[in-house]
Design a protein that fits this description.
The chain is built from 6 helices and 9 strands, in the order E-H-E-H-H-E-E-H-E-H-E-H-E-E-E. The protein has a 9-stranded mixed β-sheet. The longest helix has 13 residues. Bound molecules: NADP nicotinamide-adenine-dinucleotide phosphate (NAP).
Length: about 280
């Protein structure tokens, strides 16, 4: 498979990292592609979406389908198909808006998706907008126990970028580096703000289409990194306190409740398609 550099993507990572234009507080830390060492997330506390000396983050739009009782899957996280063809087409349309499509490792393992765009027309629209035919495919995992035999690794239509930590076992790194670009942090968890900064600066990603899952969505919400929520309400009820909701199975409240503004509502058959703007705390 071609590396990101060979694909001539805009903002392909430059070896060594470039410090120009960044303040001392948010200097780029050395980071690794196709790991030989380790990278460290820069401090995220000083970065913000505003101000000329600050790192700008991409717009993050998250797309989910949930049942009427708020469930996104069943209690054993098994693959469950509870939405219409229209919803599946909606998901692909949202994906097609992204410079990058982002998923958590849980979703990648469970759904085993390739994250492509089957419709030629959508790819042509992307090209007309100045985007690559397919978005970058980004997976995030703390532990890094990613199965190199997942279907996504069988395809090379768009680069795959994995944000993880040095907890990823060496043999896994060796196998994955053949198929993906690895960004490994020495922290226990991936700093999602750092990840978004890297995507913005290394790949010029301005729009991230995130497809969940719930644990990743919750983490993004906790850090105030979500701009838009596209939510399909499907006409089912699953019940079950152990079946994850949009924000997973974590029993704790979010650190702060998150306020949304409804921007669009569309009803097709028995499904309701909602678009919310997620309000940021000032
Ligand atoms: N209905 C829907 O629209 C929809 C959408 C998406 C997913 N789903 C369903 O949701 C289920 C998966 O749920 P899930 O909560 O396991 O999915 P997930 O959020 O995709 O994955 C969770 C995993 O992502 C990684 N992760 C999460 N937060 C992270 C962070 N801050 N930094 C680094 N890595 C992070 C961790 O991977 P490691 O364990 O590797 O460290 C974590 O275990 C599946 O059944 C899927 O079908 C439904």
């Amino acid at each position: 498979m071609k590396s990101a550099a060979q694909n001539n993507l805009p903002g392909t990572p430059k070896s060594g990292g470039n410090l120009s234009g960044l303040t001392s507080q948010v200097q780029r830390m050395p980071r690794v592609r196709n790991v030989g060492g380790a990278s460290v997330p820069r401090s995220s506390s000083s970065s913000s979406r505003r101000g000329p000396s600050h790192i700008q983050l991409p717009f993050v739009a998250v797309t989910f389908a949930m049942t009427v009782d708020g469930k996104v899957t069943t209690k054993n996280y098994s693959a469950v198909d509870f939405t219409s063809r229209e919803d599946k087409a909606h998901l692909i349309r949202q994906r097609a808006l992204g410079d990058a499509v982002l998923v958590g490792h849980g979703t990648m393992e469970n759904d085993n998706v390739r994250l492509g765009i089957p419709q030629e027309a959508l790819r042509q629209e992307r090209i007309a907008r100045g985007q690559a035919p397919y978005p970058l495919r980004v997976i995030v995992s703390n532990k890094g126990l990613i199965n190199p035999r997942l279907k996504i690794f069988e395809t090379d239509f768009a680069p795959i970028i994995i944000f993880s930590t040095t907890r990823m076992p060496r043999p896994t790194r060796e196998q994955l580096r053949e198929k993906a670009t690895l960004y490994l942090s020495q922290a226990r968890r991936v700093d999602l703000r750092w990840m978004l900064q890297e995507l913005r600066y290394d790949y010029k990603v301005k729009h991230v289409a995130c497809e969940g899952g719930p644990a990743l969505f919750r983490s993004l919400l906790e850090q105030g990194l979500v701009d838009q929520l596209n939510l399909t309400i499907a006409p089912f009820l699953f019940g079950g306190k152990n079946a994850p909701t949009l924000t997973g199975t974590d029993m704790d409240f979010l650190p702060r409740s998150v306020r949304c503004s409804l921007k669009e509502m569309r009803v097709v058959g028995d499904e309701c398609f909602l678009r919310y703007r997620v309000r940021k705390k000032r």
